[in-house]
Each structure stands twice: as C-alpha cells, then as structure tokens.
Design goal:
The complex is a heterodimer of chains A (about 375) and B (about 130).
Chain A: E1 5-11, H1 22-37, E2 44-48, H2 52-56, H3 61-68, E3 76-79, H4 85-99, E4 105-112, H5 118-126, H6 141-156, H7 160-174, H8 188-193, E5 196-198, E6 201-202, E7 211-219, H9 221-226, E8 235-244, H10 259-272, E9 281-283, H11 289-298, H12 307-312, H13 329-332, H14 340-353, E10 365-372, E11 377-385
Parallel strand pairs in A: 2-3, 2-4, 9-10
Antiparallel strand pairs in A: 1-7, 1-8, 4-7, 5-6, 8-11, 10-11
Helix pairs in contact in A: 4-14, 7-11
Chain B: H1 6-11, H2 14-19, E1 21-25, E2 30-31, E3 46-50, E4 54-63, E5 76-83, E6 88-92, E7 106-116, E8 123-131
Antiparallel strand pairs in B: 1-2, 1-3, 4-5, 4-7, 5-6, 7-8
Classes of the chains: A alpha/beta (about 375), B mainly beta (about 130).
Chain lengths: ~375, ~130
Amino acid sequence: MRKAVIIGAGMTPVGEHWKLGLRDLAVEALLNAMDDAGIDKVDSLYVGNMASGSFVEQENLGALIADWAGLGNIPAVKIEAACASGGAAVQEGVKAVLSGLEDVVAVVGVEKMMDAWPSDATRYLAYAADAEWELFHGVSFVALNALVMRYYMKAYGYTEEDLALFAVNAHINGTKNPYAMFKKPIKVETVLKSPYIADPLKLFDASPVCDGAASVIITTPEKAKELGIPKEKWVEVAGMGRAIDTINLANREDLLTLKAAKVAAERAYRMAGVTAKDIDFFEVHDAFTIMAALSLEALGVAERGKGAQLAKEGQIAIDADYPIQTMGGLKARGHPVGATGVYQTVEAVLQLRGEAPSQVPDAEIGLTQNIGGTGSNITVSIFRRV
Amino acid sequence: MARPMQVSRYWRHFREKYRLIGGKCENGHVHFPKREVCPVCGSRNVEEYEFSGKGKVISWTIVRNPPSGFEYYKPYPLALVQLEEGPVVLAQLTDVDPEEIDFGMEVEVVTKKIREFEEDGIILYGYKFRPLVK
C-alpha cells in the first residue's frame, strides 16, 4: 500500500479578522503551506468547512479557493462534517493520495464566523444538531454540551472546578503560540467567575467563535523525494479512523461515551500499529471542557469516568505523561469550526518536526481528534515523525 | 426564516409532536422520534407508538444565550427526560422554578407554544415537560 506524508503546513492567526474575508484567509493559509513545501502546484484541493453558506452566503468553496489561489483547472471540493469538517478534509486528502489517483493534494480548512451576528452564529452552529428534534426546541450547542457536563459531574462526582482545569491547561499552552487567539494564562477562578452560558457550562468552559484557516500538503514519500522536499519537513500519516454516532444526543445508548471517537480511535490505532500508550501528545477536541474529558476516555488514555482525573493529577501538561492541547487547543488557539481539524494537523506536524513553540520533548507520534456535532461525527488521525 | 414554505416543514410533524408518537418495531423496541429502521435491532417493521408522556429529568440546563429566533424566551430550561417506557427525549421544561429542577424530578408532557416568528409568521407548538401534577 502507498504511504502518505505531509510535506507542507501553513495557517493564519486565529482571531477576529475584520479586514479579511473567507477567501483571503483560505488563500493565505494555502499559499503558506505550499511555500512551506516549496511547491507551486497541486493535483487537487479538499476544503474543510462547516457552514460558509450560513455564515457568509458562500458555497462552492472548492472552486472559489482553488480559483483565487491560482491553482488552475484542478478538482476541488468542500468536505462537511460539522465541526469535524477539517479533520475529515485531511482524511479525504490522505485517501486521495493513498488511492493512487492523485499524487500531491492540498487541504485547507477555513471558517469565517465573525461576519455573522452572535445569536445567528449560535444558530448556524446548532445546524450540526438535529434540526427537527433538537434545534426546534431552542438548543444551542453550548446547551447540549451543558446537559452532558451536568450528567458527567453527577455520575462521577466531579465539580465545575475540576473541569475548569482543562481550560487552564489550554491557556498555558496557548501563551506561547503566536497563532493563538488567546495568549493569556487564566486561573481556575477565571473560569468559575465567568458567566453561565448554559448552566453548569460557563463562558470559559467554551471555545470562542472566531475566524481562521489552516492548510497542509499531502503526498507520497516517493513523490516527496522526486520533488526534492527535505526529509526534515516530512511527517507520516500513520493511521486514521472516522465514525458517526446518533445525530440526536437524546438517542445515545450512553451519554458519557463518545462511541464514534472510540470506534475511530480503534481503527486509527490498528492502522498505525500503536496503542494510546505510544502516543506522545494528543490534540483533542476541547470545544467545551467536558469534551476534553470524554475524549481522553474514548481514546483509551483514561478509563471511563477518569478523564477529568487526569487533569486533576496534572498529567495533561506539556511535560507530563499525556500532554494535550499543546498549542492551546480549541479553547485558547480558537475554534474556527471547519478549520479546527486542519489546525490540529498543522500543530501535530510542527510538534513532530520539533518546530512547535511549546515543544513536547522528543515527540515521535501524535494524535488529533476532531468532533462534529455532540459527538455525532468524529475523526481520529495519527502522525509519526519520519 | 419563516417564509411560507417553512409551514409544511413543521406541519408534517404535528401528530408526533402533539401526541408524543414514536416508533415500536416488531421486536418490541420503542424509540422516539419514529424512524424507518429500528435503532436497536435494525428491523424495518416499525409502527407508531404513543408514549404516556411521563418521565424523569436525567439532566438539564438553562439556555442563557439562545440561537436567533429564541432570544425573546431566554432564559429557558432545557432537559433530557427519560420516558417511563425507556427512550430519552430532549425538550424544554415549563411551569417550573429553575431552582426546583433536580435529577429524577418527575415530569409529564404538555403541549405548549415553542416560538413565534415575525408578526405575520407561523406559531410553532410542540411538547414541553412540566413537574407532574398529582
């Protein structure tokens, strides 16, 4: 079977880009990634994006971005899997390379959220839920996660303070990331004093609405050699998996298991020939602090009910056994929804090249996990230093 | 939102939403809302099943930053209610002091206004749950 390597990575800072539109952000990230690889053309483009039609009245992103980046008459499409669109786009790009149909593939994840009125942004994000049976009742995504958070705290006896530790850790790592939206450290009290958005979930349990774009270039080792890409740039795509779960939170067999993450992780671990113990760092989808806890459990890092315990024991810090959110995660780097999975991939690439601003010592294998919906569509990818 | 063609979108679920009608497959698995394929056993032989409307709160939240269209109603309580027949339903709670909501609180279904659209728009009704009136 062919192998896939990432040879280029680029991104824009995450934040409120009042002067830049969706295409500006996407093109900037894409050209950064192509420059990083040192190439000026690609065979195809996969765009990760959740809701450009709602946020900025723009669909057909494949054509828009490939056109404006000057890529010629290549095939280019948008991949949508709610907040996991970026992770899914990376995986579709890898599949295209592994299939042998395309040799050099560009992936760009982009989301332009700040052009929407805040309550409209809340509505568009809720389009990832079940329109007829969830949004109908006035849910926000925060509210759905709050329902899970309260249930988790009750089931295992955790407090709001315990879950706040995930936000604190993310902000510590974000301070060193020049691309992060928030570069200030916070305390547990900062989280606890922030207002409730949907009790018991507070503002600082949640990742921010923001703009951003990130991009990677994928090819085979043979083609990378042929193109003369220095080996220091290469990062192997060692394994990947993706799975869905019920779109409606109420229909879950078990509210406290991210089944889709579990299934996706099992596939990714098998493909890479590794277990959770072999992974040096985890970029998990901490859109809300509760999701960081549940993700660690689904990925097999923590036992059931022990995800938040890892944070309490200080095991998620950059120099601890299970570093997570090494460049700030969704909480501090920011969560431009459809771009997030590609940001995670770029961050994994930087860690494995040894170029990360807050470097995990001797990182050899990294994992990214990207959640769409309330756990209804999840990607897990594993990357390895070459 | 709320342009005339949206009416049929809500109208087609009137019965399920006013009577809390879900599905029951040939093997006796009940679920809500009704699906073509039983989520438990995969049977395609699924008939309508009307739930009693009684259940217990298993988790809840207070929506303080609602999606557009619901701003007028904020803050409002939203809950996961486990019906006595087993399935879990997401809905708003009504006629309740938020401070009184607790795990295991007994509730019953009631048909209420969910939201209005613009002045000339439709008004949506559906199920909410209130503390059991004994």
